[in-house]
Specification:
Layout lengths: L1 E3 L5 H4 E2 L4 E2 L2 H13 L3 E4 L2 E4 L4 H14 L6 E3 H6 L13 H13 L3 E6 L2 E6 L1
Antiparallel strand pairs: 1-5, 2-3, 4-5, 6-8, 7-8
Length: 126
């Protein structure tokens, strides 16, 4: 996944050798389209873009939870993203804000319950 603003894409949206560039309005429209298609999420003035849908990532997280006996247990968001037990998982190191989206997908599918413990976000896999 990639966290970017429309301005961050200047390199790929400009061709100075032929004096062509996408204008900011078009780039904004493109980002909005990606968000509507489920391949990006707006976060303030930037977008978090991903090459797999949150539902696809959710399947990977749930498969990990199931295969490691985490169903019924409570795990922290940070532990899932950067814990020793997930070091070899494809989702290791994803941004916490993206994992919140993934876990919310699991919650909508009734496979997880997401809640706060003090300042931390936690999840109970169902």
């Amino acid at each position: 996944m990639y966290n970017a603003t429309p301005e961050d894409f200047s390199e790929i949206t400009q061709r100075p050798q032929i004096n062509r560039a996408l204008n900011e309005e078009f780039k904004q429209t493109l980002f909005e389209f990606m968000a509507n298609q489920g391949s990006a999420v707006r976060e303030g003035s930037s977008f978090l873009m991903f090459w797999k849908s949150p539902a696809s990532w959710a399947e990977k997280v749930y498969k990990w939870a199931d295969s490691t006996g985490k169903i019924g247990s409570v795990e922290t968001l940070e532990g899932i993203c950067t814990g020793d037990e997930t070091r070899n998982q494809e989702f290791y190191g994803v941004p916490l804000n993206f994992m919140r989206i993934v876990l919310s997908s699991l919650q909508k599918a009734n496979k997880a319950e997401v809640f706060k413990i003090g300042e931390d976000t936690a999840v109970k896999f169902l």
